[in-house]
Amino acid sequence: MTQCGDVVTSEPVAGAGRWHLRGVRPFGADPVDVVLDGGMIVEVGPGLSPAGANILDADGLLALPGLVDLHTHLREPGREDAETVASGTRAAALGGFTTVFAMANTEPVADTAGVVEQVWRLGRDAGHCDVRPVGAVTEGLRGVRLAELGAMASSAAGVRMFSDDGHCVSDAVLMRRALEYVKAFDGVIAQHAQEPRLTEDAQMNEGAVSARLGLSGWPAAAEEAIIARDALLAGHVGSRLHVCHVSTAGSVEILRWAKSKGWRVTAEVTPHHLLLTDDLVTSFDPVFKVNPPLRTATDVEALRAGLADGTIDCIATDHAPHAPQDKETEWAAARPGMVGLETALSIAILAMVETGLLDWAGLADRMAIAPGRIGGLPDASPDGTRALSAGAVANLVLVDPAARWTVDPGALASRSRNTPYAGRNLPGRVQATFLRGRPTVLDGKIV
Ligand code: DOR
Ligand code: ZN
């Protein structure tokens, strides 16, 4: 029986303070004690008794590095009715995240140093997790002229990842220039791979279900053609490409080929594409409308295998909150997207750990270490070996792997309720999250 939350404060400690985590299992290994001090992990070993520490009886809880999400829509500035930096980062901390990358499709678009600095400051002031703004690749996400990539990179926000997510950078010359430009500061272009002409008016995955429902389809080739083109460009110019939310079996094959060439290509998959399939669209419930669309069981199987063997580097949520008037409407008018920060770890456990495809160390790699490396986080441990040892930054999450919980949309910290898992009973619960040694979540609640 695991239990957490018996927080005994021996001596009140200001700020991050000193924490004694008793009996945690790093990456699922044998229980040890972990001591946090001054924002760092200072000691790891059995039976420690540090003086003057807050004690957290973590008997049997898993300790994983703080999760990193490369793909979060925080909606601020502009759509604070759907989400704010504060509400989105509260959801992130509850989900075990210590860093989220905030996508640029805000209003105004995050295509200048001013907007990315604003988002970065809002994140810092809220204090629930680190917010790393993603800069737009093109002005206004219009796909016509490059945005001020250099100014965003040298701003206080220190942007390293750029994306027009929600839109594809479909012009091959612009994509090439963007890849060339970010080489100067080892940046990365994150592509939303969707050939626009092939997906005009598309409503769902193109296949047997779309044919039956009479909805216009979104062919797998529209995603795969862009990934192949951009991998070739990244290889040609020697720059870094990251592929957002890969959703088809063919995309996995193309990524495998691109990696075999030694090109600097990485990719992410969302929790929902690891679990859900396009037959859910027969309900016409817009909660299942997402971009890229839910695909087939064959695709899900290939995505899981690709994530397990490292062809797909990491999981990213594509947390996409939407206000009721934009989402709870008829299928064709509803915006695509699902909230995902608070359910990501549980869905990953369900799809990858309970199926035996990843162990806890593998899950930590796909949800913390690999995304930290791709996003260029300064404290990202190159191979993960230092992630939970003395000398590492104390970003970590404690998870009860035996706990189960039922998703109640009304109880989510996100301002929006568009989860596809309402009423679903899920495995694994975040008990505590520490950001640089300071608890942001204790006993499953925001501190
Ligand atoms: O489903 C999606 N929603 N996919 C995207 O690419 C954008 C996102 C959004 O911003 O809502
Ligand atoms: Zn996208």
Average residue pLDDT: 95
Secondary-structure-based class equals alpha/beta
Oligomer: single chain
So what's the overall shape?
globular
So how many helices?
11
Major beta sheet summary: 10 strands, mixed
How far apart are the termini? 24 Å
Instruction: Say which CATH homologous superfamily of the largest domain is assigned.
Output: Metal-dependent hydrolases
Task: Please provide a brief summary of the model.
This protein has 447 residues and is α/β, with parallel strands linked by helices. It is built from 11 helices and 20 strands. The strands form 4 sheets. Strands 1, 2, 3, 4, 5, 6, 17, 18, 19 and 20 form a 10-stranded mixed sheet that branches. A 5-stranded parallel sheet has the order 10-11-14-15-16.
Mind explaining what this structure looks like?
Helices cover 26% and strands 22% of the residues. With 447 residues, the chain is an alpha/beta fold. Strand 18 (425-435) and strand 19 form a beta hairpin. Helix 4 packs across helix 6, helix 6 (220-237) runs parallel beside helix 7 and helix 7 runs parallel beside helix 8. The strands form four sheets. Strands 1, 2, 3, 4, 5, 6, 17, 18, 19 and 20 form a ten-stranded mixed sheet that branches. A five-stranded parallel sheet has the order 10-11-14-15-16. The chain folds into two domains: 2-63 and 389-446, Roll (Urease, subunit C, domain 1), CATH 2.30.40; 66-374, TIM Barrel (Alpha-Beta Barrel), CATH 3.20.20. Bound molecules: (4S)-2,6-dioxohexahydropyrimidine-4-carboxylic acid (DOR) and zinc ion (ZN). (4S)-2,6-dioxohexahydropyrimidine-4-carboxylic acid (DOR) binds at residues 73, 105, 165-166, 192, 290-291, 318, 320, 335-337.
